[in-house]
Each structure stands twice: as structure tokens, then as C-alpha cells.
Write a structure and sequence with these properties.
The protein is of the alpha+beta class. The chain has four helices and five strands. Strands 1-5-4-3-2 form a five-stranded mixed sheet, with helices on one face. A hairpin with a 2-residue loop joins β2 and β3. α2 runs antiparallel to α3. The termini are far apart.
Length: about 180
């Protein structure tokens, strides 16, 4: 077995460091970053509904929202939306877009075009492991009538190779109610 010299190990380390220069992939996620990502996601949902209400290109806004916040095309994404039951898992971009604005999937009425005026977060907790995080809790969608809709969420977040944070897991559901 060949042994690696100190000079070889140093050259490997420098090459690796140079290859990673300019990206934040190796930076540990922080609670502040996770919170900011969730809040920006909520603002994006409100924005899509506002654009729809004003007669703008809400489909383009939703597509941009998905591209900004979800890792479709970069990593597998596990997405189980709140109001999906027949086609409950949305593994690709087009299925996610259909959920947000309506489209090819019959049950999709366009969650993000409701519209909502605010999204409020009550996190239960966040677990950070290097460049990934899991976070769960409740989020509340404020309707235009002033009613809050409570939804449970779990997000898996990963720092992408370019340093951006994206969701690789999004599961949300309505709270259990006994009949």
C-alpha cells in the first residue's frame, strides 16, 4: 500500500480548497438562515396570490418561486402538499407548479392563488447537521377575510453547490381533528 506524503496531502487539501472557493457549500447552516428561508417562502406565497388578484402573470411568479425555493433539477425533492390527496406526492417541477397555481392535476385548485395576506410561523424545532437542516412546526395562512388557516409543516433544507438554500423535503398537512 502506498503512503501519502505530507506534501501530497497538502496539495490535495489546497486543490480541494481551490475547487470550493467561491461557494458556501461547506458553510454550516444557521438557525437564522433557516428562519429567513421559511419567511421568504411565505412572502413568496403571498406574492403569488397578490399577482393573481391583480391579473398579473401568477404562473410565472409561481415558477420563479419554485425555482428559488425547491431543489428540482439539482436534487430529488420530496414534496407532500397540504391539499393533495389523490396525487399526494409531487416529485417534479410541473407537479409542484400544478399544486401552487392549478394545472394538469385534477385536484389542484391553486393553493398559492387563494390569496393569502400573510404567513405566520410557529416553529417546534430545527435540527442542523452541517449543510442540511430539518425544521417543523405550524404555519398559519391569513386569508383575505382575516381568518388564519393552521397547517403543520416539515421542511428538509440543503445548501446547494452554489451556496443557495433549497427545500429537498416539504411535507405539510392539516392538523388532526377527532370526529
Amino acid at each position: 500500500m502506498k503512503s501519502i506524503t505530507l506534501a501530497t496531502a497538502a496539495a490535495i487539501a489546497l486543490t480541494s480548497a481551490a475547487a470550493n472557493a467561491g461557494t458556501d457549500k461547506t458553510a454550516k447552516l444557521t438557525e437564522t438562515e433557516v428562519t429567513a428561508l421559511k419567511e421568504a417562502w411565505g412572502e413568496g406565497i403571498v406574492n403569488i396570490g397578490t399577482i393573481h388578484t391583480q391579473g398579473g402573470d401568477y404562473k410565472a411568479a409561481a415558477a420563479a418561486h419554485i425555482e428559488e425555493f425547491y431543489a428540482y433539477g439539482e436534487r430529488p425533492v420530496l414534496f407532500k402538499p397540504t391539499l393533495a390527496s389523490d396525487d399526494q406526492f409531487r416529485g417534479d417541477f410541473d407537479e409542484a407548479l400544478s399544486y401552487f397555481v392549478g394545472g394538469d392535476i385534477a385536484e389542484d385548485g391553486g393553493f398559492a392563488i387563494a390569496p393569502y395576506t400573510d404567513v405566520r410561523w410557529e416553529p417546534e424545532g430545527t435540527v442542523i447537521n452541517g449543510d442540511t437542516a430539518m425544521t417543523m412546526g405550524n404555519y398559519f395562512f391569513m386569508t383575505t377575510e382575516g381568518t388564519e388557516v393552521k397547517v403543520e409543516y416539515t421542511f428538509g433544507i440543503e445548501r446547494m453547490d452554489d451556496g443557495d438554500l433549497k427545500f429537498v423535503l416539504h411535507h405539510s398537512s392539516m392538523p388532526f381533528t377527532s370526529s
